[in-house]
Amino acid sequence: MLIGIDVGGTHTDAVAVESGKVVASGKVATAHDDLLSSVLGALEIVLKAVSPEDVTRLNLSTTLSTNAIVEGRTDEVGVIVSSGPGIDPYNFQTGKFYFPVKGSIDHRGEEVAPVVEKEIMDAFETCVAADVTAYAAVSKFSTRNPAHEEHIAESIASKSDVTSLGHRFSGQLDFPRRIATAYYNSAVWRLYNRFADAVEAGVRAKGITAPVNILKADGGTMPLESSREIPVESILSGPAASVMGVLAQRCIGKDCSDSPSPEGDTLILDIGGTTTDIALLVVDAPLVEKDGISVGSFPTLVHALKTRSIGVGGDSALHYSAGALRVGPERKGVCMAEGGSSPALMDALIYCGHASFGDSSASRKGIESLAEECGMEPLALATSAITLAVKTISRAVHEFIEEVNSTPVYTIREILSGADLAPDQVSIMGGPAEAFQKLLADELQIPVYTVPQYAVANAIGAAMTKPTFELELFADTEAQTLFIPVMGERRSVSSKYKLLDAVLDAKEALVSYFEQRDIVIGADEIEVTEEQSFNMVGDYGTVGRNIRVKCQITPGVDI
After folding, report:
1. N or C: lower Cβ tally within 10 Å for the chain?
2. 245 assigned to some structural domain
3. Helix (H) or strand (E) holding 317
4. What tens digit of pLDDT does each residue of 83-121 get?
5. Residue 427 phi, psi (nearest 5)
6. Domain range holding 270?
């Protein structure tokens, strides 16, 4: 028995899935100031129909980290960086407690100059005086040698609650991205861990002993235990749940002939109460950003599915200003049909007959009252609001597709042979999905299908998402060292160590990582996404090889 819980901007949904079928579901309003109550409230509904002892896995998709960053509710972070010569570290400043210090490690991992202890302690004392207890330590070539980052962490350990080390997030040689990733990881660490503590305690109190996992931005999951150290990986887990929901439900609960063709390229639209999330599947493969997403104005190393969110949803407020009707992006609570105090987009859909639920008389009163204020006929106002919303979604879709085709930085491009992507079908989900189906089909001029059980599709996607993980291995045969950053493993290898050896060791390390967490994976689930070996030349010829291998478990769903 699998349980999936999706914490959305408007509702928190929970489902229980057994043998690919939903056997129970629950939906509650999301309390943004108390997400735990929403999680447990939805879970309680599901547990009325299933036994806690039968649950084998619980996957959770949460907006906590994303919302904390967007709303400015993160901790201040003391960021200590060691860049070495040839680069101005101030070009990559994150936050106001940012301290470049002297010290340098070269591209081969050799120390050129040690970090200056006094500069570290001066930075630390400044942070302590400001009650900063979260830190990040990043050096330019720490993926080749993390000694400087580890030294900084040891120096400030006495009064730091967390220190995120840049080399732990990726072996990728991208100093600015590692700075931003380490910064955000520490910024959300305390808030996220408090939430994780409460979730674990709450779930166990319900009698569930099964593993609890968190959905990641790349469409995989990670154990709750691991997520405590890298909460930054939970950013954008909501849009990822949308994609996995479509993958999971291609043939669940209805005849496949009524579903989008798995052979076609599929546009995904998740229309919630607050936002619409947009994504793409290319023959059942989601687009994945190679280098990492940007959070705010900072590129990071957080691998994620390629998505876009816009501020149009069923509860988007309708308002009239400067002689023009506007839809969103503000949300003033639920629509009037559900007891809200001001008209929203869903009220317009109800007024025009595209939807029918809740108190339709409240929707009519709200639309008529706003129309009177605007000097418009109620039907004209409601129609205009719907048209504006549909065209806003359509414009965002076209911009999204244009961006994908003009910036080929997504892994799926490796199999597209340079052809432009043009989706020929749409899968739509979310509470207002049925209301928008025909409207968007007419606007986009391609078939639009509602996802089976569209109202809880994200929770289904969360429930059925399988674990995934990415691992990088570095080997220097001259120094006879091997280093796997994300596992903190460093050991000796022979000077005859070759690329094939590295590939086998990387796969073995990945299998070992999951075995330690009682998860069995097969060799066919591991793919090598990058493998490089280049000669290092000294005064008298080749002195060794520098080897890099990256492998991962491909994100997917358990059917």
Report:
1. C
2. no
3. strand 316-321
4. 888 889 999 999 899 999 999 988 777 889 999 999 999
5. -105, 125
6. 254-455
